[in-house]
Amino acid sequence: MRRNIVHEGAANLKYEIREIVGVAREIAALGQTITWENIGDPIEKGETLAPWIREILRELLETPQSYGYCDTAGVPDTRAFLADMVNQRPDGVAVGADDIIFFNGIGDAVARVYGFLKREARVLGPSPAYSTHSSAEAAHSGYNHVTYDLDPHNGWMPNVEDIRNKVKYNDSIAGILLLSPDNPTGAVYPREILDEIVAIAQEHDLFLVADEIYAHITFPGYPRLHMSQWIQDVPAIAMRGISKEYPWPGARCGWIEVLNRKRDKNFSTYVDSLLAAKRLEVCSTTLPQMSVPRVCGDPRYAEHLCRRAKMFHDRANEAVAAFDGCDAVIVNKPGGAFYLTVMFKDGALNNHQTLPISNPEVRRRIETLAPHVSPDKRFVYYLMGATGIVVVPLTGFQCAHSGFRMTLLETDDARRAWIFKTLREAIDQYLAS
């Protein structure tokens, strides 16, 4: 090309959760049976929508309006319903229907939220980082994503002092991102930590972003707090959706709640730019939006959420128990979402460890890949070749710690037990090799 047409941030578009699939498909083609533990798709792992939710969707299919365009910001009745839900939360910030904007899934919202920031304005995010956020933030700026530490020795809680110092000494930081429940760690943040982060935002005149896609998959005994309940007077954006709750990931239906918009004129103008960008693509998916008041407003929905939260809580207990006594790893019990992060202690991994792989073609392919990757990705490759289990290396989440993330989604009890048992045995064997 006579001009360089590649965006400065293109090299930062990394998504290890999906990129590992390419290698896994190669290994599958060579004869290894694959067990997908890399991506948070409940449907792929055997969960089905409750019959009453499916019945609501069938009824909507008979509604002519479900096939047409909707308003740019979303279906008006749905936005009014969601605003009313926000306003019913105790001690929360009030919003109007105009503060609810729909997108084609949270991934679309993430791309817009970072993509329409001024390039010099940075958003400080957690490490380990969820790849959609970290890649989008880095791509918009053309530089590496700026991060604060989550502490594996303290239940993956945010290191508030690290946040404070990063904000204090980097005046390009305009916002702070947090995920609670977190992906990939499953950590749920208590009110006192959230209040400290709010205080930092107040002191330095920042806005906050909270990815709340797992807000209703919070385990018994952990606080279920929406951003509107703890944000106080700070301008903020909360991201929500139905992909993990119904669950219906293929619906691509997410939205943002804009909080305290009128507190800051510059922030309000920025939000206007998000809506203007939506107008260029007309609207987001209509039918899934129309389902939200019917499903979330149904008396059965609360029980549906409680049942699923307990289900994942019980599976988390099973997973943590599988790694009990494994001194080479740190496994923090998650408080929400449906993931488990297993972190190797410093010095546990090296570039010589292997697992026996019976298929010679698979073994040769893994041996070709392994020398060129990080130590935890090396383990992930050998695990894939030896057992067919596909997990995501922790360093793929822009993290300095070695480890991996797996899901708690397998619906078959016997197969789930096999996955946990096989992972534990593979770690023991790998470290002893």
Categorize the overall geometry. globular
Count of alpha and pi helical runs: 14
Q: What is the strand arrangement across the widest sheet?
A: 2-9-8-7-6-3-4-5
- Output the helix-strand order: HEHHEHEHEEHEHEHEEHHHEEHHEEEH
Query: Radius of gyration over alpha carbons?
Result: 22 Å
**Total strands:** 14
- Average pLDDT, to the nearest integer? 93
Roughly how many Å apart are the termini? 50 Å
Uncertain stretches of 5 or more adjacent residues: none
CATH level 1 class label of the largest domain: Alpha Beta
Query: Can you identify the CATH superfamily of the largest domain?
Result: Type I PLP-dependent aspartate aminotransferase-like (Major domain)
Q: Helical percent range? A: 40-55%
CATH topology of the largest domain: Aspartate Aminotransferase, domain 2
What share of the residues does DSSP label as strand, in percent?
Answer: 5-15%
What's the story with the biggest beta sheet? 8 strands, mixed
Count the domains.
Answer: 2
- The appropriate CATH architecture of the largest domain is 3-Layer(aba) Sandwich
Coarse structural class: alpha/beta
Overview of this structure, please?
The mean pLDDT is 93. This protein has 14 helices and 14 strands. Strands 2-9-8-7-6-3-4-5 form an eight-stranded mixed β-sheet, with helices on both faces. By secondary structure, the chain is an alpha/beta fold. It has helices at 16-29, 51-61, 76-88, 105-115, 131-141, 160-169, 191-204, 227-230, 265-280, 286-296, 301-322, 360-369, 375-387, 413-432; strands at 35-36, 100-103, 122-127, 147-151, 157-158, 173-179, 207-211, 236-241, 254-259, 329-331, 339-344, 389-390, 392-393, 403-407. Strand 3 (122-127), helix 5 (131-141) and strand 4 form a beta-alpha-beta unit. The chain is globular. It folds into two domains: 10-47 and 302-432, Alpha-Beta Complex (Aspartate Aminotransferase, domain 1); 68-296, 3-Layer(aba) Sandwich (Aspartate Aminotransferase, domain 2), CATH 3.40.640.10.
